[in-house]
Amino acid sequence: MQMTFRWYGEDDPVSLSYIRQIPGVTGIVSAIYDVPVGEVWPREKIERLLERVQQAGLNLSVIESVPVHEEIKKGGRERDRYIENYQKTLENLGACSIPCVCYNFMPVFDWTRSGLAHPLPDGSTTLIYEKEAVDKMKPGGDLSLPGWDASYKKEELQALVEEYRNLTEEDLWGNLAYFLNKIIPTAERANINMAIHPDDPPWSVFGLPRIIKDEASIERLLALYDSPRNGLTLCCGSLGADAGNDTVGLVRRFAHRIHFAHIRNVKLLGEQSFCEVAHPTACGSLDIAGVMKAYYEAGFTGFIRPDHGRMIWDEAGRPGYGLYDRALGASYLCGLWEGFSRSGLQQKEKGEE
Ligand code: DNO
Description:
Helix content is 40%, strand content 17%. The protein has helices at 16-20, 43-55, 70-74, 79-95, 131-136, 154-163, 169-190, 215-224, 236-240, 247-254, 288-297, 324-352, and strands at 2-6, 25-30, 59-64, 100-104, 115-119, 125-129, 193-197, 230-235, 258-263, 265-268, 274-277, 303-306. Strands 1-2-3-4-7-8-9-12 form an 8-stranded parallel barrel, surrounded by 4 helices. A 4-stranded antiparallel sheet has the order 5-6-11-10. The longest helix is centred in the C-terminal third of the chain and has 29 residues, at 324-352.
Protein backbone atom coordinates (compact mmCIF):
# COMPACT_ATOMS: atom_id res chain seq x y z
CA MET A 1 0.00 0.00 0.00
CA GLN A 2 0.99 3.60 -0.43
CA MET A 3 -0.02 6.02 2.32
CA THR A 4 -1.43 9.32 1.07
CA PHE A 5 -2.97 12.47 2.52
CA ARG A 6 -5.57 14.86 1.15
CA TRP A 7 -4.45 18.39 0.31
CA TYR A 8 -6.91 21.11 -0.73
CA GLY A 9 -4.42 23.21 -2.65
CA GLU A 10 -2.69 26.48 -1.85
CA ASP A 11 -5.56 27.70 0.36
CA ASP A 12 -5.32 24.66 2.60
CA PRO A 13 -3.99 25.63 6.05
CA VAL A 14 -2.33 22.20 6.09
CA SER A 15 0.69 22.81 3.86
CA LEU A 16 2.54 20.30 1.73
CA SER A 17 5.61 20.79 3.92
CA TYR A 18 3.62 19.74 7.00
CA ILE A 19 2.31 16.69 5.18
CA ARG A 20 5.84 15.78 4.14
CA GLN A 21 6.72 15.52 7.85
CA ILE A 22 4.19 12.78 8.61
CA PRO A 23 6.12 9.50 8.74
CA GLY A 24 5.04 7.03 6.09
CA VAL A 25 3.09 9.43 3.89
CA THR A 26 4.43 9.46 0.33
CA GLY A 27 1.54 10.67 -1.76
CA ILE A 28 -0.93 13.52 -2.14
CA VAL A 29 -4.61 13.35 -2.94
CA SER A 30 -5.80 16.60 -4.49
CA ALA A 31 -7.76 18.21 -7.31
CA ILE A 32 -8.06 21.30 -9.48
CA TYR A 33 -10.45 23.51 -7.57
CA ASP A 34 -10.87 26.51 -9.85
CA VAL A 35 -12.45 24.92 -12.93
CA PRO A 36 -16.28 24.90 -12.87
CA VAL A 37 -17.88 21.45 -12.55
CA GLY A 38 -18.26 19.92 -15.99
CA GLU A 39 -15.58 21.94 -17.79
CA VAL A 40 -12.34 20.41 -19.08
CA TRP A 41 -9.34 20.57 -16.74
CA PRO A 42 -6.56 22.18 -18.80
CA ARG A 43 -3.36 20.21 -19.03
CA GLU A 44 -1.25 23.19 -17.86
CA LYS A 45 -3.16 23.40 -14.59
CA ILE A 46 -2.63 19.70 -13.94
CA GLU A 47 1.06 20.03 -14.77
CA ARG A 48 1.38 22.92 -12.33
CA LEU A 49 -0.24 20.90 -9.54
CA LEU A 50 2.00 17.95 -10.30
CA GLU A 51 5.15 20.09 -10.19
CA ARG A 52 4.11 21.73 -6.94
CA VAL A 53 3.55 18.36 -5.26
CA GLN A 54 6.76 16.86 -6.61
CA GLN A 55 8.78 19.88 -5.50
CA ALA A 56 7.54 19.17 -1.99
CA GLY A 57 9.04 15.69 -2.24
CA LEU A 58 5.71 13.89 -2.66
CA ASN A 59 3.85 12.05 -5.43
CA LEU A 60 0.54 13.17 -6.88
CA SER A 61 -1.20 9.84 -6.30
CA VAL A 62 -4.93 10.36 -6.63
CA ILE A 63 -7.25 13.00 -7.98
CA GLU A 64 -10.20 13.35 -5.61
CA SER A 65 -12.46 14.14 -7.27
CA VAL A 66 -13.22 14.84 -10.87
CA PRO A 67 -16.85 15.76 -10.16
CA VAL A 68 -19.58 14.36 -12.40
CA HIS A 69 -21.95 17.05 -13.73
CA GLU A 70 -25.61 16.72 -12.69
CA GLU A 71 -26.65 16.49 -16.37
CA ILE A 72 -24.80 13.16 -16.51
CA LYS A 73 -26.31 11.86 -13.26
CA LYS A 74 -29.79 13.01 -14.30
CA GLY A 75 -29.40 11.71 -17.85
CA GLY A 76 -30.19 15.22 -19.12
CA ARG A 77 -30.11 16.51 -22.70
CA GLU A 78 -26.63 17.98 -22.28
CA ARG A 79 -25.03 14.84 -20.91
CA ASP A 80 -23.03 13.89 -24.01
CA ARG A 81 -21.27 17.25 -24.02
CA TYR A 82 -20.34 16.86 -20.36
CA ILE A 83 -19.20 13.27 -20.86
CA GLU A 84 -16.94 14.43 -23.71
CA ASN A 85 -15.47 17.03 -21.35
CA TYR A 86 -14.94 14.35 -18.72
CA GLN A 87 -13.13 12.20 -21.27
CA LYS A 88 -10.87 15.12 -22.21
CA THR A 89 -10.08 15.74 -18.55
CA LEU A 90 -9.13 12.07 -18.16
CA GLU A 91 -6.91 12.27 -21.23
CA ASN A 92 -5.16 15.32 -19.78
CA LEU A 93 -4.71 13.57 -16.43
CA GLY A 94 -3.36 10.49 -18.22
CA ALA A 95 -0.89 12.65 -20.12
CA CYS A 96 0.45 13.74 -16.71
CA SER A 97 0.67 10.08 -15.56
CA ILE A 98 -1.95 10.42 -12.81
CA PRO A 99 -2.68 6.82 -11.79
CA CYS A 100 -6.05 7.10 -10.06
CA VAL A 101 -9.21 9.23 -10.20
CA CYS A 102 -11.89 9.21 -7.50
CA TYR A 103 -15.47 10.33 -8.24
CA ASN A 104 -18.96 9.77 -6.94
CA PHE A 105 -22.44 9.43 -8.40
CA MET A 106 -24.52 10.96 -5.61
CA PRO A 107 -27.27 13.26 -6.91
CA VAL A 108 -26.79 16.92 -5.88
CA PHE A 109 -25.32 16.33 -2.42
CA ASP A 110 -21.97 14.82 -1.65
CA TRP A 111 -21.31 13.76 1.94
CA THR A 112 -23.96 15.00 4.34
CA ARG A 113 -23.80 15.71 8.07
CA SER A 114 -26.05 17.45 10.56
CA GLY A 115 -23.20 18.95 12.58
CA LEU A 116 -19.52 19.69 12.18
CA ALA A 117 -18.38 20.35 15.72
CA HIS A 118 -20.07 17.80 17.92
CA PRO A 119 -18.17 17.60 21.23
CA LEU A 120 -16.81 14.19 22.22
CA PRO A 121 -16.22 13.26 25.88
CA ASP A 122 -12.45 13.77 25.47
CA GLY A 123 -12.94 17.45 24.57
CA SER A 124 -12.33 17.10 20.83
CA THR A 125 -15.02 17.92 18.27
CA THR A 126 -16.22 15.87 15.35
CA LEU A 127 -18.68 15.46 12.48
CA ILE A 128 -22.06 13.98 13.28
CA TYR A 129 -25.09 12.71 11.37
CA GLU A 130 -28.32 12.56 13.33
CA LYS A 131 -31.31 11.29 11.41
CA GLU A 132 -33.77 13.48 13.29
CA ALA A 133 -31.84 16.64 12.52
CA VAL A 134 -31.30 15.75 8.86
CA ASP A 135 -34.98 14.92 8.40
CA LYS A 136 -35.80 18.47 9.46
CA MET A 137 -33.47 20.09 6.91
CA LYS A 138 -34.97 21.38 3.68
CA PRO A 139 -32.62 21.67 0.73
CA GLY A 140 -33.12 25.01 -0.98
CA GLY A 141 -35.10 26.43 1.94
CA ASP A 142 -33.17 27.91 4.79
CA LEU A 143 -30.86 24.97 4.69
CA SER A 144 -27.20 25.62 5.01
CA LEU A 145 -25.63 22.26 4.75
CA PRO A 146 -22.67 21.99 7.10
CA GLY A 147 -19.36 21.73 5.33
CA TRP A 148 -20.78 21.13 1.93
CA ASP A 149 -18.65 22.36 -0.97
CA ALA A 150 -21.55 24.08 -2.69
CA SER A 151 -21.29 23.89 -6.45
CA TYR A 152 -24.74 25.48 -6.77
CA LYS A 153 -26.40 28.64 -5.67
CA LYS A 154 -29.19 28.12 -3.16
CA GLU A 155 -31.88 29.10 -5.68
CA GLU A 156 -30.62 26.52 -8.16
CA LEU A 157 -30.62 23.85 -5.52
CA GLN A 158 -34.36 23.62 -4.98
CA ALA A 159 -34.96 23.36 -8.75
CA LEU A 160 -32.29 20.71 -9.08
CA VAL A 161 -33.69 18.61 -6.26
CA GLU A 162 -37.14 18.89 -7.91
CA GLU A 163 -35.73 17.65 -11.21
CA TYR A 164 -34.62 14.48 -9.47
CA ARG A 165 -38.06 13.85 -7.98
CA ASN A 166 -39.10 11.52 -10.79
CA LEU A 167 -35.76 9.79 -11.12
CA THR A 168 -35.80 6.31 -9.65
CA GLU A 169 -32.82 4.29 -8.45
CA GLU A 170 -33.12 2.22 -11.62
CA ASP A 171 -32.92 5.38 -13.75
CA LEU A 172 -29.78 6.40 -11.85
CA TRP A 173 -28.25 2.97 -12.47
CA GLY A 174 -29.02 3.40 -16.17
CA ASN A 175 -27.30 6.78 -16.22
CA LEU A 176 -24.28 5.39 -14.40
CA ALA A 177 -24.04 2.53 -16.93
CA TYR A 178 -24.23 5.05 -19.80
CA PHE A 179 -21.44 7.11 -18.23
CA LEU A 180 -19.17 4.12 -17.54
CA ASN A 181 -19.59 2.77 -21.06
CA LYS A 182 -18.17 6.02 -22.36
CA ILE A 183 -15.47 6.82 -19.83
CA ILE A 184 -13.95 3.44 -18.93
CA PRO A 185 -12.55 2.93 -22.46
CA THR A 186 -10.98 6.40 -22.15
CA ALA A 187 -9.55 5.50 -18.73
CA GLU A 188 -8.13 2.30 -20.23
CA ARG A 189 -6.32 4.28 -22.92
CA ALA A 190 -5.13 6.87 -20.39
CA ASN A 191 -3.93 4.23 -17.87
CA ILE A 192 -6.12 5.62 -15.12
CA ASN A 193 -7.86 3.59 -12.45
CA MET A 194 -11.36 4.97 -11.92
CA ALA A 195 -12.45 4.64 -8.30
CA ILE A 196 -16.06 5.40 -7.42
CA HIS A 197 -16.71 6.58 -3.87
CA PRO A 198 -19.71 5.02 -2.13
CA ASP A 199 -22.61 7.16 -1.01
CA ASP A 200 -22.03 8.92 2.27
CA PRO A 201 -24.14 8.11 4.19
CA PRO A 202 -25.18 4.94 2.35
CA TRP A 203 -28.91 5.71 2.27
CA SER A 204 -31.21 8.18 0.57
CA VAL A 205 -31.07 11.76 1.90
CA PHE A 206 -33.70 14.42 1.16
CA GLY A 207 -35.62 11.84 -0.86
CA LEU A 208 -32.92 11.65 -3.55
CA PRO A 209 -31.89 8.27 -4.93
CA ARG A 210 -28.54 6.82 -3.79
CA ILE A 211 -27.24 3.58 -5.24
CA ILE A 212 -23.69 2.71 -4.13
CA LYS A 213 -24.32 1.57 -0.61
CA ASP A 214 -23.72 -2.11 0.06
CA GLU A 215 -22.21 -5.36 -1.19
CA ALA A 216 -24.94 -6.07 -3.74
CA SER A 217 -24.72 -2.60 -5.27
CA ILE A 218 -20.92 -2.74 -5.47
CA GLU A 219 -21.22 -6.10 -7.19
CA ARG A 220 -23.67 -4.61 -9.67
CA LEU A 221 -21.48 -1.58 -10.29
CA LEU A 222 -18.41 -3.70 -11.07
CA ALA A 223 -20.45 -5.84 -13.47
CA LEU A 224 -21.69 -2.77 -15.37
CA TYR A 225 -18.32 -2.58 -17.06
CA ASP A 226 -16.02 -5.49 -16.46
CA SER A 227 -12.62 -3.86 -16.56
CA PRO A 228 -10.01 -3.46 -13.82
CA ARG A 229 -10.18 0.27 -14.62
CA ASN A 230 -13.75 0.29 -13.34
CA GLY A 231 -12.93 0.12 -9.65
CA LEU A 232 -13.61 1.43 -6.18
CA THR A 233 -12.71 3.95 -3.54
CA LEU A 234 -13.63 1.78 -0.60
CA CYS A 235 -14.60 4.15 2.18
CA CYS A 236 -15.15 2.06 5.28
CA GLY A 237 -16.49 5.02 7.25
CA SER A 238 -19.22 5.68 4.67
CA LEU A 239 -20.28 2.06 4.23
CA GLY A 240 -19.79 1.25 7.90
CA ALA A 241 -22.42 3.82 8.94
CA ASP A 242 -24.89 1.08 8.01
CA ALA A 243 -24.53 -1.69 10.59
CA GLY A 244 -25.62 -4.18 7.93
CA ASN A 245 -22.37 -3.66 6.02
CA ASP A 246 -19.47 -5.89 7.05
CA THR A 247 -16.56 -3.61 6.19
CA VAL A 248 -13.85 -6.26 6.67
CA GLY A 249 -15.82 -8.65 4.46
CA LEU A 250 -16.19 -5.96 1.78
CA VAL A 251 -12.44 -5.42 1.64
CA ARG A 252 -11.81 -9.17 1.37
CA ARG A 253 -14.43 -9.59 -1.32
CA PHE A 254 -13.52 -6.61 -3.53
CA ALA A 255 -9.80 -6.07 -2.86
CA HIS A 256 -8.93 -6.87 -6.49
CA ARG A 257 -10.99 -3.89 -7.67
CA ILE A 258 -10.16 -1.42 -4.89
CA HIS A 259 -7.76 1.25 -6.10
CA PHE A 260 -8.10 3.68 -3.24
CA ALA A 261 -9.01 3.14 0.40
CA HIS A 262 -10.44 5.78 2.71
CA ILE A 263 -10.04 4.70 6.29
CA ARG A 264 -11.91 6.18 9.21
CA ASN A 265 -13.89 4.98 12.19
CA VAL A 266 -17.47 5.86 13.15
CA LYS A 267 -19.49 5.33 16.28
CA LEU A 268 -23.00 4.15 15.51
CA LEU A 269 -25.61 6.03 17.54
CA GLY A 270 -28.76 4.15 16.55
CA GLU A 271 -30.89 3.96 13.42
CA GLN A 272 -29.24 6.06 10.68
CA SER A 273 -27.22 8.11 13.13
CA PHE A 274 -23.50 8.16 13.79
CA CYS A 275 -20.58 10.36 14.72
CA GLU A 276 -17.00 10.20 13.56
CA VAL A 277 -14.25 9.22 15.97
CA ALA A 278 -10.49 8.76 16.00
CA HIS A 279 -9.10 6.05 13.70
CA PRO A 280 -8.20 3.29 16.21
CA THR A 281 -10.55 0.31 16.45
CA ALA A 282 -11.11 0.88 20.18
CA CYS A 283 -12.55 4.36 19.55
CA GLY A 284 -15.58 3.37 17.49
CA SER A 285 -17.86 0.72 16.02
CA LEU A 286 -15.65 -0.42 13.12
CA ASP A 287 -12.87 -3.00 13.18
CA ILE A 288 -10.21 -0.78 11.64
CA ALA A 289 -7.39 -3.21 12.47
CA GLY A 290 -9.43 -5.93 10.75
CA VAL A 291 -9.91 -3.73 7.69
CA MET A 292 -6.16 -3.05 7.48
CA LYS A 293 -5.40 -6.74 7.98
CA ALA A 294 -7.74 -7.60 5.11
CA TYR A 295 -5.86 -5.16 2.86
CA TYR A 296 -2.55 -6.57 4.02
CA GLU A 297 -3.57 -10.16 3.40
CA ALA A 298 -4.93 -9.28 -0.04
CA GLY A 299 -1.48 -7.92 -0.94
CA PHE A 300 -3.02 -4.49 -1.52
CA THR A 301 -0.69 -2.20 -3.50
CA GLY A 302 -3.09 0.72 -4.03
CA PHE A 303 -3.47 4.02 -2.22
CA ILE A 304 -4.74 4.51 1.31
CA ARG A 305 -5.54 7.72 3.07
CA PRO A 306 -6.64 8.46 6.60
CA ASP A 307 -10.07 9.99 6.16
CA HIS A 308 -11.68 12.67 8.29
CA GLY A 309 -10.14 13.54 11.62
CA ARG A 310 -11.55 15.17 14.72
CA MET A 311 -10.48 18.67 15.70
CA ILE A 312 -7.98 18.27 18.54
CA TRP A 313 -5.39 20.40 20.34
CA ASP A 314 -7.30 23.61 19.53
CA GLU A 315 -6.70 23.27 15.83
CA ALA A 316 -9.06 25.35 13.68
CA GLY A 317 -9.61 24.57 10.04
CA ARG A 318 -11.62 22.71 7.46
CA PRO A 319 -13.99 20.33 9.28
CA GLY A 320 -12.73 16.79 9.03
CA TYR A 321 -9.52 17.89 7.35
CA GLY A 322 -7.26 19.32 10.04
CA LEU A 323 -3.68 18.15 10.33
CA TYR A 324 -3.31 16.61 13.77
CA ASP A 325 -5.91 13.89 13.98
CA ARG A 326 -5.42 12.79 10.39
CA ALA A 327 -1.67 12.60 11.01
CA LEU A 328 -2.32 10.43 14.07
CA GLY A 329 -4.56 8.32 11.84
CA ALA A 330 -1.85 7.91 9.20
CA SER A 331 0.68 6.88 11.84
CA TYR A 332 -1.71 4.38 13.39
CA LEU A 333 -2.50 2.84 9.99
CA CYS A 334 1.20 2.64 9.05
CA GLY A 335 1.91 1.06 12.45
CA LEU A 336 -0.71 -1.61 11.93
CA TRP A 337 0.74 -2.36 8.50
CA GLU A 338 4.25 -2.70 9.86
CA GLY A 339 2.93 -4.99 12.58
CA PHE A 340 1.24 -7.23 10.03
CA SER A 341 4.29 -7.35 7.81
CA ARG A 342 6.52 -8.25 10.78
CA SER A 343 4.28 -11.05 11.95
CA GLY A 344 3.94 -12.27 8.34
CA LEU A 345 7.73 -12.35 8.14
CA GLN A 346 8.04 -14.25 11.41
CA GLN A 347 5.52 -16.83 10.26
CA LYS A 348 7.41 -17.26 7.00
CA GLU A 349 10.70 -17.68 8.86
CA LYS A 350 9.12 -20.25 11.17
CA GLY A 351 7.84 -22.16 8.14
CA GLU A 352 11.32 -22.18 6.61
CA GLU A 353 13.00 -23.48 9.77
C1 DNO B 1 -15.54 13.91 2.14
C2 DNO B 1 -15.10 13.09 1.01
C3 DNO B 1 -16.01 13.21 -0.18
C4 DNO B 1 -15.36 12.58 -1.38
C5 DNO B 1 -16.20 12.52 -2.58
C6 DNO B 1 -15.55 11.67 -3.62
O1 DNO B 1 -14.82 14.19 2.98
O2 DNO B 1 -14.92 11.77 1.37
O3 DNO B 1 -16.26 14.54 -0.45
O4 DNO B 1 -14.24 13.30 -1.71
O5 DNO B 1 -17.44 12.02 -2.31
O6 DNO B 1 -16.09 11.95 -4.86
